[in-house]
Amino acid sequence: MIVLGVLVIGFLFLMNKSVNRDEANKNTLQDIIETLMTKHNLNLDKHFKSQNNTNFVGFDQSQSKILIATNTKQRVVGFKDILDCAISIDGQTIEKSSTSKIVAGEVLAGGVGAVIGATMKDKDQQINAIGLTVTLNDLTAPTMEIIFDSSNEAKNYKSQVEEWHGIFKIIMERNREGNMAS
Description:
39% helix, five-stranded antiparallel sheet, single chain, four-stranded antiparallel sheet, 4 helices
């Protein structure tokens, strides 16, 4: 009985610590986002914040800028500085687009949804992490990773990852055509 009591108390302690950590992440990331939005005078047209409050992406179309933030790395960059965007599932790149061309699978497989669908042969297949890696025109910090989810619910974020990959593709296509103000 004593052992069971100790286990219950230990479990409750760990759960409380997890809730406090998620709340701290939320406050920290929210503070970072608000600071960057104020500093760069951003009015975001669209944004995404991960469930665990550790990743954020948003864009201000009128200023042609993207805000990407994690708890460890934050950037506001002009659309013109986005060179590449790749979808990754469980750490493996499955779809990549760049300013010079659409890479590999998309033309052959019929778009991002088909590529993700082909990667997930079994519709019940577990995905543990899904996100985007964005390559920037910056030699000191050339990449930013946006993890949409890293839990057993990652599969549920597929459409959001596809949508944001599409947004980055449009930005890169406009860059290639020279239709960006900044």
